[in-house]
Amino acid sequence: MSDKKASRPCHHCKSKSASAPTDNSKIHYEKFWLYRHCSSLQQRDRQAQKAGQLFSGLLAMNVVFLGSAFISSMIFNKVAITLADVWILLSILKVLCLFWIIYYLLGTSRQPHAVLYRDSHAGAIWIRGSVLLFGSCSILLNVFQIGYSTILIHCKSRVEIVFPSIGILFICTQAYFLWHHSKDCIQVQHNFTRCGLMLTIATNLLLWLLAVTNDTLHIEIESQLREVERRFAGKAPSSHPHCLCTCPNMTICKVFQKGYILLYPFNTEYCLVCCSVLYVMWKNVGRRISHHHIPHTKPKFKLQGVVFGPLLGTSAVIIGACVFMMYQIQATSLVPSHQVFVIYYSYYIVLLPLMSVGAVIGTVIHALEKKELDTLKNPTRSLDVVLLMGAALGQIGMSYFSIVALVATDPRDLLNSLALSYSVLIIFQNITQNVFVIDGLHRRRITPPGKEEDTEEEQNGEVYSQRRVSVLELGQEIRKASLSYIHTYSNLSWKRRVLREISFFLVLCNIILWVMPTFGAHPIFENRMERSFYGYSTWFVIVNFGLPLGVFYRMHSVGGLLEVYVTA
Q: Which stretches are transmembrane (predicted)?
């Protein structure tokens, strides 16, 4: 490759994301010292790519093991390794990741021919939007943590102020990086980019692991509640060490404390979402996309052709919102009402079987359809399948722990029997929905050039091409739009129509099942049945491990179901 061609910048590389270049002089083949004697340039490139992935994966594995050793030592030996030591280690990792991200933004991505291809499947708008949403909540969480630690500076370490400050900078930089570069298939500095991505993934995993296991503030709040109960009972104050650092009678301190507890799950969600996006970027390093991998027409979301799915789904959302508000009002009191748990579990017991039946019917329709499977290489879809299966383990794992605790105590009690039914139905619903979504993602849906699309475009053209001059013409246009909707609905084949109805219904159901636990409805922790069986610390780790995965599963299912709906 000549120096002139190498130094000439490609002005259209980033703008033309859907075009694959044909000039071989723009391709940067990977090199690795172990495979410099390979006979073929392409063979040397493939071997170097595998070696780069192996070494970057080993780097991430060692960082994760080191951080896990620190966090485990903090849990089992709080004298030798403290929480401040873990924060110092994570702060160092955050700073290293910040340096690499800034270098990527200002250096790597701006090199000539750095981004010749962009993966159209990666970085969907809903997942980038969730990065911004959860990132904003995580920033607010760190602000609350800084405020809370500042008020209690007499008994808090200064590291508790420095760590969230670095966290805010890390979250902002990472969110900007993922929003603008999640689709990149970088073609230069392959190994350094892979190592940087893997280091960032390892850092996010360790932050998630710390959030799962760190119950310091929760223990402080529990100790304050016990202190209040002791005072009401007329007993002497406790000598518990956490009581020495209690929130004073200040409104702002209570706001910081309550906000921290409310936003706590968002931070774990943010770490998981970032890991998934970064992993796709890691898989796309050095990837060259050919023309047949690039979709010529991207299906758009249209609400036409569905009636019962939106109606049933909207009903489930409205009822769920009412149940959620009732639960929030009752469960936040000092002594939660027994009735609110019954209502909450009853809502799930009615909704989950409907979702399971819909998923089973959709799977059967997929089996009846004679559609080819899409076997093209797609890292984003492969990751979607892995994430659906892995995230479902959170709710399934918690459900099995609950089943053991409830059966071992008193399964004949009303609340215990409802919780037991809820746990069993959660397992069945997760499995059936996963089968339906994964099967739908692998179906190749090619719309035949038949009457449906033409008819829809003609009807829409007739409706919206007329000028709205008078009220009479407006009424005629509304009537034609209704007829167009009915015509489209009747023209859809019954299989496609049922698939769309089921997909839309499941989308709305998963949205409300995502909202309820995300914004504070956690009966599995607040009903105290499993907590009294396993103990506070053990059940705290189980819930903090399973609950964020469950919330992430609902959010990720919405994206998968929308894709199934659009391609149906």
A: 54-75, 87-106, 126-149, 161-179, 191-211, 261-282, 303-329, 341-365, 385-408, 420-441, 502-521, 533-553
